[in-house]
Amino acid sequence: MQEQQNEMLKGIILKGIGGFYYVKHEDSIYECKARGIFKKRKITPLVGDRVSISIQSEDEKLGVIEEIHPRKLEMIRPSVANVDQAVIVFSVKSPDPNINLMDKLLAMCEYMGLNAVLCFNKFDLLKDDEFDHFYSMYENAGYKVLKTSTKINHGVDDLITVLKDKISVFAGPSGVGKSSLLNNVQPGLKLKTGALSDKIKRGKHTTRHSELIELATGGWVVDTPGFTSLDINYIELAELDTLFREFRDFNNQCRFNNCMHISEPGCAVIEALDEGDIHPSRYESYKYFYNQITEHRRYKSW
Ligand code: GDP
Ligand code: ZN
Questions:
Q1: Mutation test of ligand 1: which of 150, 196, 221, 222 has the most ligand atoms closer than 8 Å to its C-beta?
Q2: Taking 80 as the threshold, does the pLDDT of residue 160 lie above it?
Q3: Which ligand is nearest to the CA of 250?
Q4: Domain check: are 209 and 104 in the same one?
Q5: 286: closest CA among 232, 240, 227, 234?
């Protein structure tokens, strides 16, 4: 006979496989089915969901998901709920940081309403202060910026602090040191990369579900990197300026309220650029995305 227990426990879904969800409550992980009502309502529990479960067997650690608590945010790729932040990793050298891609990732985060933290890794490869202007440029734009090196174990404590008690997804190009960083945070922790995209390329319909990895130092990391493919073309042009954090201080002060900040007279964004309040490199990225989206629209309307 199953144990009678009416008590509901709160937990977080770490993993989902074939209709089973692995819910962590305190020090235990319960294998749970979801109530049929979710399926009827077309709600799929997601990794990262905060849930209430009823216990079917405490000995066997079996339960049933009774309730899914409201989601703060739902990410599609990877499919995870309640992600608190993206840690966007670039290396200062080998490979050199692709600033355009960095700004694109930041804009995507703003678009999703996801807080972003920037992490410049391979700090040990710098001989001088050549990157100081980049760090300060993103700090001035309103981002938290970490400088790390897994080689000389620099800044890893800062990363641990940033990850504490939050659900984080890592993003950034390959080879910048994401896995090495996570390994320094917690030995054995690696991101699952390569394999997934290879499978997709070969056309196999292998769905690889993401998992949350709980850190001993607090917090959870999504075990697959985010934003593997990026498409900014569906972003509305009128919305683009709001995706550059530091533009928000100015973009409502232009003479024309539909100003795109390209060549209009009385543009407060261009004024801020001229006065050094907006970094030229950030403005270049804005213009680049603006042109890209415009081109895309033109092409589509043919
Ligand atoms: P990922 O693809 O972003 O996960 O990158 P990896 O963690 O696999 O690292 C790619 C390469 O960069 C490996 O050869 C690492 O040894 C190296 N690497 C990682 N972190 C650092 C660092 O802080 N300094 C230096 N010099 N090399 C690093
Ligand atoms: Zn303007």
A1: 150
A2: yes
A3: 2
A4: yes
A5: 240
